[in-house]
């Protein structure tokens, strides 16, 4: 059992890196020629490669996704709950879009370069002025015909509930009364593996290492992805956030109780 887990780590890590480089290189080469002159073509190429990259990486991870509902057609703003860094893979595989991500990722080796190439919108949530700037970028992306995916909880959770949605980044959609679509994610692992709220969810003060290597060792991950049937419109961003959270909560099936998640902070995954 332990040997099999080590073997999974030994081949999955390099395979994930190779797939990411194979997806990034053509985008990096093509972007200077397409992004400015033929943006619709660039959007189509970017989305196609991101979709294939997401699906290939999920296959490497042994992650099987059960999707319900249809992803919204672009241009659209899609909000989702946030549980793990592999949320990006799941959503990219089913609804490739421009993601809104925390600013510190821009400085990560390789990850920052890849994210800039696929036009990730970075936000420093600690600076109020930056939230305004990013709101303008989201509005520009939507007007250009891009789909945008946002995690408005502002952080990842153990999957115990849909956290309060921060309304600030919903302002562009609210001001223009644009439709905002929603989705919810949850994960499960086999009974003989660590529970998903610890092995897949990345939250609280969990360090990336050893979390990522342990995730790569999992035999299988089951993911449920549900897209909402109808979007919401509201000129008040706070009311919009409340409406979205209410509907997402109704559709979400918790992975763990809040009490069990809180008690687990003594686990080795936390410093």
Tell me about this structure:
47% of the residues lie in helices and 14% in strands. With 271 residues, it is α/β, with parallel strands linked by helices. It has a single domain (2-258), classed as Glycerol-3-phosphate (1)-acyltransferase. The protein is globular and about 55 Å long.
CATH top level is: Alpha Beta
- What's the structural domain tally? 1
CATH architecture: 3-Layer(aba) Sandwich
| Overall residue-averaged pLDDT value | 93
The CA-CA distance between the termini, in Å, is 27 Å
Structural class: alpha/beta
Determine Rg (CA atoms, Å). Answer: 18 Å
Main features:
single chain; 271 residues; Glycerol-3-phosphate (1)-acyltransferase; 10 helices; 47% helix
Summary of the model, kept short:
This protein has helices at residues 2-34, 39-61, 87-94, 111-117, 128-143, 171-175, 196-199, 208-217, 237-251, 258-263; strands at residues 63-68, 76-80, 98-102, 121-123, 147-150, 180-188, 221-227. It is of the alpha/beta class and 271 residues long. It has one domain: Glycerol-3-phosphate (1)-acyltransferase.
Topology:
Elements: H1 2-34, H2 39-61, E1 63-68, E2 76-80, H3 87-94, E3 98-102, H4 111-117, E4 121-123, H5 128-143, E5 147-150, H6 171-175, E6 180-188, H7 196-199, H8 208-217, E7 221-227, H9 237-251, H10 258-263
Parallel strand pairs: 1-7, 2-5, 2-6, 3-4, 3-5
Antiparallel strand pairs: 6-7
């Amino acid at each position: 059992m332990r040997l099999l887990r080590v073997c999974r780590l030994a081949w999955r890590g390099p395979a994930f890196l190779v797939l990411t480089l194979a997806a990034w290189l053509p985008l990096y080469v093509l972007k200077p020629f397409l992004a400015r002159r033929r943006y619709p073509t660039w959007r189509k190429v970017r989305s196609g490669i991101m979709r294939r990259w997401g699906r290939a990486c999920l296959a490497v991870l042994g992650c099987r996704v059960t999707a319900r509902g249809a992803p919204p057609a672009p241009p659209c703003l899609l909000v989702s709950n946030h549980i793990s860094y592999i949320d990006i893979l799941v959503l990219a595989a089913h609804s490739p879009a421009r993601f809104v991500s925390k600013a510190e990722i821009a400085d990560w080796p390789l990850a920052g370069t890849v994210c800039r190439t696929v036009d990730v919108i970075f936000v420093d949530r600690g600076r109020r002025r930056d939230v305004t700037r990013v709101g303008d970028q989201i509005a520009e992306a939507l007007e250009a015909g891009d789909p945008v995916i946002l995690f408005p909880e502002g952080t990842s959770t153990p999957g115990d509930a849909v956290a309060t949605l921060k309304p600030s980044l919903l302002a562009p959609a609210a001001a223009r009364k644009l439709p905002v679509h929603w989705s919810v994610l949850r994960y499960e692992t086999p009974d003989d593996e660590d529970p998903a709220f610890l092995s897949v969810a990345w939250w609280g003060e969990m360090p990336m290492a050893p979390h990522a290597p342990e995730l790569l060792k999992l035999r299988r991950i089951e993911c449920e992805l549900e897209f909402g049937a109808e979007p919401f419109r509201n000129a008040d961003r706070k009311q919009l956030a409340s409406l979205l959270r209410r509907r997402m909560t109704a559709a979400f099936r918790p992975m763990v109780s809040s009490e069990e998640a809180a008690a687990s902070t003594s686990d080795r995954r936390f410093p």
